[in-house]
Amino acid sequence: MILASSRRSNLSQHIDFPVVLWSGQPSPRNFPANVYPFRANSHFLYFAGLSIPRAAIRLDRGKLELFVDDPAPGSVLWHGPEPTAAQWAEQMGADAYYPLAALAERAEDAATLPVQDWATRQQQMQCLGRSVSPLEGQDLELAKAVVELRLCHDELALSEIRQVVSVSVEAHLTGMKGTAKASTEAQVRSLIESVFIAHEMTPAYSSIVTVHGEILHHDRSAHPLTPGDLLLVDAGAETLGGWASDITRTWPVNGQFSPTQRAIYEVVLAAHDRCIAQVKPGQEYEEIHLEGALAMAEGLVDLGILIGNPETLVEQDAHALFFPHGIGHLLGLDVHDMEDLGDLAGYTQGRKRSDRFGLQFLRLNRPLQPGMVITIEPGFYQVPAILDNPQFRHQYDKLVQWEKLAQFKDVRGIRIEDDVLVTDQGAEILTAQLPTTPDQIEQVMIN
Ligand code: GLY
Ligand code: MN
Ligand code: MN
Questions:
Q1: Same structural domain, 183 and 76
Q2: Which domain holds residue 197?
Q3: Domain Aminopeptidase P N-terminal: where (predicted)?
């Protein structure tokens, strides 16, 4: 836990007031002992280094106090021996520990960040005697300091991210190889998640394993696999310590891309490769997004789907008819790292989200710095809610060759997503072991 302790002392360089962070608690499904899996709040995990339910830490000028109760006397029957408060404190390197009930008198004047679960949120408000959302005053100052620290990852974080990426790559390969024998989305999903489980990891978000890739966050896997369909798989594990990966590949159910699928896939891949080539310190992420948009527009003009000058098409947001989301986001303890803080992490202070059709879902708008891990994830989708929208249809009618587009109806959704570390020199593609080209993917699928 040496590095978690250096995170705590780094925080004390940024702020001079006490901080209390809560881990959260498992939410019951029905009766109190039947709970959803527990996952500690990411800010707590970052500074505590350990996932402990119903705990809080108080940080004050580099000193750490832990607030947690010993296991309840009857608990051993159901859960076996669990660490005592003293043992947790020792593992964490805490300077002192107290029962949770002692927190109220030590929390006065402390800043905090809101947790997600409602029961703990109420405890936070009770303990502090005030609301914790929206962020303001010292809470906002704390949030800015935490963003400063969590934007660029330390060695401990990078080593966990490398582990989780390697397991997630293995999971995708297992899914690709097993698709020939699968008859439903759910069967491929089970192959992928079985690899996570075998490594004592969990999905970092609901896996997307679907032949309806045009539904961007399709989190159900109920469809049969039909030859001729493309399967879009967006799945990534997280480590026990909470560090996430986020990978997407799209492959043909029958192991071979059709000519139309391959043509669009090559357009998305060109956008992916051009964006990754731009990742380096100092590079504005918005420029990378616009490079991806331009590559998509160029490719779609070449295929005869869009009509016009690619630069102008991007200025008109015409690419967003088919690539409506941002090129990616920060990755770390959360798959969309620190988005619990709104755009405080994603956007440099003073920058605001655009409401332009082609920029509204850009989640990151900062110059890149060494140590950041970001995703690059261009995609092409035929989303009925966009393409059949009368307003878009009217606005973009003359820029799309609709009859040409109809020839590509076997492409509902393609996304290619990699996790990229910004290094001092440029970039390292952490997910590089997972093939991206159509030929490589077809090769994996027949093995
Ligand atoms: N898995 C969600 C995303 O790619 O942003
Ligand atoms: Mn992503
Ligand atoms: Mn993803």
A1: no
A2: 155-446
A3: 3-126
Give the total number of structural domains in the chain: 2
Pocket of ligand 1, candidates 208, 238, 331, 417: which has the most ligand atoms within 8 Å of its Cβ, to mutate? 417
Q: Note down pLDDT in tens along the chain; length 447 residues.
A: 456 899 999 999 999 999 999 999 999 999 988 999 999 999 999 999 999 999 999 999 889 999 999 999 999 999 999 999 999 999 999 999 999 999 999 998 999 999 999 999 999 999 999 999 999 999 999 999 999 999 999 999 999 999 999 999 999 999 999 999 999 999 999 999 999 999 999 999 999 999 999 999 888 889 999 999 999 999 999 999 999 999 999 999 999 999 999 999 999 999 999 999 999 999 999 999 999 999 999 999 999 999 999 999 999 999 999 999 999 999 999 999 999 999 999 999 999 999 999 999 999 999 999 999 999 999 999 999 999 999 999 999 999 999 999 999 999 999 999 999 999 999 999 999 999 999 999 999 997
- The answer to whether the CB of 361 is under 6 A from ligand 1 is no
377 Cβ below 6 A of ligand 1: yes
Structure tokens of 197? Answer: 């489980």
Peptide bond into 81 cis (omega under 30): no
Same structural domain for residues 194 and 110?
no
Question: CB of 266 within 8 A of CB of 438?
Answer: yes
The kind and range of the H/E element at 380 are strand 379-381
C-alpha distance from residue 299 to each of 282, 285, 400 (Å): 27, 21, 13
337 lines ligand 1 (CB under 6 A): no
